[in-house]
Amino acid sequence: MTTEAKQTRALPWDERVSILRLRCLDRKTMAPDGRTLLHNRQDFTDRIDARVLQETAALPWQRRMGLRTKARLEALPFAVDEFEQLAGRPDFARMTVPADERETARQVLAAYPKPGGQTGHCALHLEPLLTGGVCAVKATVQTRLSEATGEARDTLLSFLDALDGFSSLVRHAGEAAQAAATGSPDWRRHELAVLADSCDWISRNPPRSFREAIQLLWLVNLAVEYGDNAALVCPGRLDRILRPFYDNDRDEALMLIESLYLLINHFVADGLAVAVMVGGTDPAGADTTCDLSYLCLEALRRTKLVYPTVGVCWHEKTPRDLSELAIQLIAAGYATPAFFNDAVIRSGLESYRIPPEESGEYINSTCVEITPVGRSNVWVASPYFSLCQHLLDEIADQAADRPAADFEGFLAAYLARMDRQIDDAVREQLRQRQERRDGGGKPLQSVFTRDCVGRARDIDAGGALTNWIECSFVGLANLVDALAVIRSEIYDKKALDFGALRAMLNDDFAGHEAERLRFLHGYPKYGNTDPAVDSLASQVMEHLQQSCARHDSAPDQPLFIPGTFCWIMHERLGAACGATPDGRRRGVPFADGGGPAQGRDISGPTRSILSTTSWDHHRLIGGLAYNMKFSARLFSSPPALSSLHDLVLTYLRRGGFETQINVVSREQLEEADKHPERYRDLVVRIGGYTDYFTRLSRGMRREIMDRTDHAT
Questions:
Q1: Least confident of 273-287, 502-516, 565-579, 655-669
Q2: C-alpha to C-alpha distance for 418 and 546, rounded to whole angstroms
Q3: Pairing between strand 690-692 and 309-314?
Q4: Which residues contact 507 (CB under 8 A, 6 or more apart)?
Q5: What is the DSSP string of 565-604?
Q6: CB 239 within 8 A of CB 296
Q7: Is 247 found in the same domain as 159?
């Protein structure tokens, strides 16, 4: 054994990763001037953008975007500390911009308003880069350029500028590792030399090893996010992307995946989501699980930070030990594993015209919304609809005018209102799409999105093969619970009219606590297998899906695709909404996805699952999250873990879209609420994504605590 090896092993990787995860948490604290270090990034890019836009005023807009991306990537500073095993950690501390320069840049950029619409939320098409390298990708663009003219030529030239910037970024990451070698011990100089050599090679050539492949994957994702303002570019299907390189670096693979996770947590602001998926099926329906599938899950054990979520794409041929590993992590308090129903999602994608041979290549493009890998310009959560706010608007109209003669008429009027809301939303999203064609531009993302190069069109100009808009309907459980009360109180019992109900709700039930409690506890609730209530969920969602589908007919118009996931919007929209007929008070968060409202599934988790899967999920490609919460003390034995595993499989076999689980006691949450400094890395599942509990708003923390704890 050499001296170098002895010194390397004096601080094993498990100790290094413990230090690195704490440093990652520390780096997201406040900078000396009171701003977070992550804010430096925006200031830094603003200054670059202002300079480039001033210097390129005579050029076509698409060329200016290529030069902007290139300039950003060439200027990005990097740092490497004494423990990291991958290069490419942006140095936010070196991005500080003086206040006067920030203001000058903002004045310049004010003449260039940012177009609306979503960005990123995708996984890139990386096969050409990983098999041919940057030079081969450039050659493909240059071949297409040789036959292009006009706008197509400008677009392809912008792609080449962006690729030149990307090559520079990769080299600079290696140069930062080389610079860090000064003064380092021999064993560390050797490690840094490997990093530097790897980056120098992959700045032009295809990766030769697992290490170089994962290094290149990180740097291209980083470059697209940073260089093109494409938020939340996901690593995607790591077990598929990296499988061709795995045999070269089996011993280092887990360490390198953990290193990737640490870099993601450093770069991405908290409160968002970054996704990895494992398992699933190939075009022939065969299982794709491999060793890397397990390692992607296992890497969560030591990093134990908010990113990434690792979704298991479950199907009937998924190896039981893969799903059991995810259950073990969940039961141990790791909130990031989730289960996605591969058959349901593939069926949904095919219903939206994704070819069957590609329908297994999808990613939850952050939370639970689904986008096809490598071919997508999908705008997710565009927009969120507050189902209960529109219900209150309909109640107000019914109170002011002649009310519907029966409940069916009332429900039809409400659904017609939702049709109009959807129509308005589609018009607004299409307007923003036009803004992006005129004033957008993401040249590097375009290079790695099919088929922008072949079409010679930027992704913002419609170059992607898949151009969708995915909306999300928030508060489904509250809506159907409220509809059940309206049906009984106004139409069956005739105990109220809409005027009295509206007055009661406007007053937040002041003076009507008895009525509120009757609405809340005197009627069956969604989540307890009551057919009369569950059928309302099915009826509403079937109508909303059909309403969205009405906008799918125009040849060049994006599909408008529904979902029920909510990120944090169930809390935000709930805070803005008055009291509702289900007994919910003004400002209280809505239900957190496709499952029951908080605390109302009182008949146990199995019945909750039966209600949630009583209606068809497959067309909700915009995402559906089903949250479960259990006390940690419930899972102290192998039989208990097996029961949890069986419960998850019951949900999936009944056609459930996605499920995620919090295993944490209310007592621990209350303690973290009181003493956040002691629990800064406590991670919980929200409405499709994970977040640090102590960094949530007060309302969101309360919402998590109020979810049904199935151990009690």
A1: 655-669
A2: 11
A3: unpaired
A4: none
A5: --BTHHHHHHHTS---TTSPPTT-----SSSPPTT--TT-
A6: yes
A7: no
Query: Nearest CA to 367 among 216, 549, 561, 567?
Result: 567
pLDDT digit string (tens) for 362-399? 999 989 999 999 999 999 999 999 999 999 999 999 99
In whole angstroms, give the CA distance from residue 566 to residue 160.
38
Q: Does residue 674 carry a pLDDT above 90? A: no
In this structure, the answer to whether residues 607 and 667 fall within a common structural domain is no
For residue 192, how many other CB atoms are within 10 A of its CB?
Answer: 23
Domain that holds residue 194: 1-109+150-226
**Residue pair 257/383 in contact by the 8 Å Cβ criterion:** no
Token output for 156: 């392809």
Alpha carbon 658 to its chain's center: 13
Rounded Cα distance, 540 and 406, in Å: 17
pLDDT band at 10 (very low <50, low <70, confident <90, very high): very low
Q: How far apart are CA 614 and CA 292, in angstroms?
A: 35
Q: What angle do CA 616, 619, 622 make, to 5 degrees?
A: 120
Do 655 and 515 lie in one domain? The reply is no
In sequence order, the 6+-apart residues with CB closer than 8 A to the CB of 494 are none
**pLDDT tens sequence across 253-311:** 999 999 999 999 999 988 899 999 999 999 999 999 999 999 999 999 999 999 999 99
Indicate whether 599 and 695 sit together in one domain.
no
Tokens 């007592």 map to which residue? 667
User: CA end-to-end span of the chain, whole Å?
Assistant: 55
C-alpha to C-alpha distance for 348 and 621, rounded to whole angstroms: 6
- Assess if residue 378 is contained within a domain: no
